[in-house]
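During the second half of the funding period, the structural biology subgroup turned its attention to how the target accommodates small molecules. The most pressing case was PMV, which had performed well in the primary screen but for which no bound structure existed. We therefore specified the complex as follows and requested a full 3D prediction, including the ligand pose.
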Amino acid sequence: SDDKSNMVTCTAPVNIAVIKYWGKRNEELILPINSSLSVTLHQDQLKTTTTVATNRSFEEDRIWLNGKEEDISHPRLQSCLREIRRLARKRRNDTHQSFDVAGLSQKVHICSINNFPTAAGLASSAAGFACLVYTLARVFGVEGELSAIARQGSGSACRSMYGGFVQWIQGERDDGKDSLAQQVEPESHWPELRILVLVVSADRKPIGSTSGMQTSVKTSALLKHRAEGVVPKRMGDMIEAVCQKDFTTFAELTMKDSNQFHATCLDTYPPIFYLNSVSQQIINVVHRYNRHYGETRVAYTFDAGPNAVIFTLEQHFSEFVQVVQHFFPSEINGGKFIKGLPVDDANLS
Ligand code: PMV
């Protein structure tokens, strides 16, 4: 009925890419130039919580991020709102419901909170848009494939719609309908895998991913080579490594792909620097540690910021934490760590 009001709260986890997405072939629909693959983190520590309310007394759609009201007219927010309402209308028409059964005539108020630094290259937009799309879908009674809508909020967000190991298939179509996230393996597949987030800096990154990608696509020949000549094979090898729980291959591909992504940033003109000297020291410590044991026990990856995400197996986890504490007594997270996180399967709840 007309006075229906509704409120839903959901949480969504961060995902960390081990094969990176960098570069769009369509800016508006957010279609990538290469496929990517990520691991969804456990929600205990890094997550977004979003509440969406509809009420007939609301006069406008409004949004608050971490307690501060933001501009709802942001084009990507508008894409997500428009697409969810489109699906809700379609469902209403298909099921012959009365006009406002899904609260479709009502405005929404959205309130979203990250429990980790926003825009510090810790995939805040991924968890944020995944959570927004999922919560809106619940409010409006929409079900089914939602990753193509989350993708239109932030590319990497489509991968946070699933738990465990997730690929974002780039797709071929111009309308983006085949550019979707897909679970490769659930979290339960590899329970020994551990993730350690090393917060080097919680500052906002100097160059956002949107403008960074645009400049890279325009100026970097290495990016073109990466997207066409490197990532297609690497995706296949990475999926195989995950399926086989082959840590050595998984770890080496992860480090090489992070390094190539940051090399692409350097190859961009003017160049983009996301790593700082602490990041470089972490890279050196990981390689020294692996060389010491004569096997690859630990891997690093970095997104659009200086913070490291470390992958290792349960049996090496505490020793490596001690190594980091020894070499970086104060540089990382004020001397405190975000704890080792198991991979998450329960994802959206
Ligand atoms: O989805 P965006 O626009 O925040 O871009 C994410 C880019 C990287 O984090 C660097 C790589 C990735 O695949 O997540």
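Two results from this model are relevant to the next phase. Residues 17, 20-22, 36, 123, 125-126, 154-156, 209-210, 303-304 surround PMV (CB under 6 Å). Residues 335-349 have pLDDT under 50 and may be disordered.
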